[in-house]
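Let's sit down with a protein and look at its sequence and fold side by side. We need material for that, and I hope you will provide a protein of your own picking. Once you have written the record down, we can walk along the chain together.

***
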Amino acid sequence: MTLQVRILSAAMATVTLASASLVSTSALAQQQQTQQPTRGHSAYNYIGAAVADHDGGDSILLEGSYEFKSPYFVSGYYRNFDNDFGSSNDVIAAKLGRYFWLSQGLTADAGLRMGHVDFGRNDTGFWGVEANLRQRIEQFEFYGGLGWVDYFDAGSDNQYQFGVNYYINSDVSVGVGYQDSEFGDGVRLRGSYHF
């Protein structure tokens, strides 16, 4: 009978050690999972560059966005516009916004934008509002948006944009769109790194 007690004790000790190991491994995995940074929405965490062909010239655009507390983000851009008459103008702007998950792959965002634009003889500040819809279907992201801008010394303007981005992988996208900006409307080609 002592042999049976020893076998039973050894079996119980093995089960106890296996259970403790399993619980410890599960707790460690859960702890590591909570310590890993969560990746935000890729459309709101990126740096990028673009070129645009406007009605009266071409522009180069540097832009970026950072989701500082989901679902809130801050974005900004710098655009240098070379017009057909040989002069150069620029604009710098920042936007504070929020996005909303509407359904699988569909998001909307809205934000308040402020900045400064050089129209040649007129330098002026501006503020505005804008809203966009984005639909992600596999590697493609289709987007469109409307905005309104009030230039302090140059009236107001309605603006729009629409286009498509192709995600080569989770970190890199390229896209083409049509956009009305401070310097008129035109085709825009872009590339972005998402983090």
Remarks:
- The two ends are 66 Å apart (CA to CA).
